[in-house]
Structures are given as structure tokens and as C-alpha cells.
Specification:
Rossmann fold, 6-stranded mixed β-sheet, globular, transport, ATPase-coupled transmembrane transporter activity, nucleotide-binding
């Protein structure tokens, strides 16, 4: 289980009276709250996180596997504190970025998945065959030895997802994984995520995908402003984001 207890993320920004130098610099900076305080127990199989750009959704996602650490409060995964037990947390919680090019680092798909398997402790002798088996599961077996740059955007995202899944995490956190994809590849990735046995926490702007979650968190201005079943949460999100429709003028008497 992932548990956030009064988790807050802050950053420093120049003070209103302007930047300074030397020892006075930190004193001249203001603390800006990016997110929180957030207190949540995340237990459902499928959790969607929605909200406007800049609302703190990605910060919340990064808290869940220790990519971002809380400035105060705690985040725990199965009792492990992300601030103290980061490596152990990241073995349990995989993370998929929006842009696969930020995640795929090897020249070919088979080498990229094999790298994940190496990090997971798979012996060298069986690594290539295991990597090819993973690629076959997602329909990329015939692309295993191609240069990554020859893959489409959707195929690269599928490769990035496969490399994460090859480490067999207990939880998968996805930060807008389909934002850069066309309709076809969005459907492919959504279907794959829907069938995973792992708990999935997905930050998304795709409200149709969010509607299939077990629970939806609405984030705005650094706060979780609604938390509940998809229908109610998405209705609250739409009401918050969309201006009310003006009433039609009355006709002549």
C-alpha cells in the first residue's frame, strides 16, 4: 500500500524584492508550496489522477516512488519510507514517463529491455532470451533488433513500458503515458495498462481512460480537491474547469 501522510513539496523562488547574492541569497528567497499537504492511502487496483496543467499532478506521481521527496510529511510504500529506503521503494514502484525518449537509453529495443533485466538481477546468460520474450508479449518481437529511432512514437512508448514491466514492479506509476500518442497507439497502451495485474496509478488528461479507474483524484493548485468514484470525481473536475453555460435569453412575451 502507498500511504502519504501530510506530504508537502516546496521549492524556493526569488523574493518579491528581487534576487540577492552570496549569503543573503537564501534569506531573499521565498518558499513556494508546489503540492500539499496530501494525506492518502492508495489501495485500489486502478487509480487515475486528473487536473489542469501545473496543478501538481506530476509532483504527486513522482512522490510515489521517491523521484521527488517530500519537504515535510512522509510517503511510504509497504511501510518503506521513500526518503530513507529509496532504492527498495523503486524496486517495488515502476515509473513510466510521458516522453519515452527520456526513458529509453539503449540503441535497440532488445538491449533496452535487457538493461532493465540486468538491473533486476537476471543472469547474463538468459538476459537476451528473456528480453525477447518480453518484447514478444507486447507485439514488438519483430522490432527487437531495429534502431530505436526507427520505431514510431507509440512503439517507443510501448518499449519504455515493457522495460519497466520487465523489472516486475508491484506498482506502476504512469505520468501522462498517452499524451504524445495518436488515437491508435493510445488505445494500445490503454488496453495494456488495463490488463496489468499490478496496481496502476495513472496521471492523465484522457477522461475516458480515467472513467475506467476504480478511484479518481482531482488535483488543482497543489491540492487534492476531490477524491472518489470516477463519475463523481470527473463531474467535479469538469465543473471546476469549465465555465457554466450562460442561460439562453428569454424570448419575447
Amino acid at each position: 500500500m502507498i500511504a502519504l501522510d501530510a506530504a508537502v513539496v516546496t521549492a524556493y523562488a526569488p523574493a518579491a524584492d528581487g534576487p540577492r547574492r552570496g549569503r543573503a541569497r537564501r534569506a531573499a528567497e521565498d518558499v513556494v508550496r508546489i503540492l500539499g499537504p496530501v494525506t492518502l492511502d492508495l489501495t485500489e487496483h486502478r487509480i487515475a489522477v486528473v487536473g489542469p496543467n501545473g496543478s501538481g499532478k506530476s509532483t504527486l506521481a513522482r512522490l510515489l516512488n521517491g523521484l521527488t521527496l517530500p519537504s515535510s510529511g512522509t510517503v511510504r510504500v509497504d511501510g518503506l519510507d521513500t526518503a530513507r529506503d529509496g532504492a527498495a521503494v523503486r524496486r517495488r514502484v515502476g515509473f513510466l514517463f510521458t516522453d519515452p525518449d527520456a526513458q529509453v537509453v539503449m540503441p535497440t529495443p532488445v538491449e533496452d529491455v535487457a538493461l532493465s533485466l540486468r538491473r533486476a538481477g537476471v543472469p547474463a546468460a538468459g538476459r537476451d532470451a528473456a528480453a525477447r520474450a518480453w518484447l514478444d508479449r507486447v507485439g514488438l518481437a519483430d522490432r527487437a533488433d531495429l534502431p530505436v529511432r526507427a520505431l514510431s512514437g507509440g512503439q517507443r512508448q510501448l518499449l519504455a513500458l515493457t522495460a519497466v514491466l520487465a523489472t516486475e514492479p508491484d506498482v506502476l506509476v504512469c505520468d501522462e503515458p498517452t499524451t504524445l500518442l495518436d488515437l491508435r497507439w493510445r488505445a494500445v497502451v490503454d488496453a495494456l495498462l488495463a490488463d496489468l495485474p499490478q496496481q496502476v496509478v495513472q496521471v492523465t488528461h484522457d477522461l475516458d481512460a480515467a472513467a475506467h479507474a476504480d478511484r479518481v483524484l482531482v488535483v488543482d493548485d497543489g491540492q487534492v480537491v476531490h477524491d472518489g468514484p470516477p463519475a463523481a470525481a470527473l463531474a467535479a473536475y469538469r465543473a471546476r474547469m469549465l465555465p457554466p453555460t450562460p442561460a439562453a435569453p428569454a424570448g419575447p412575451a
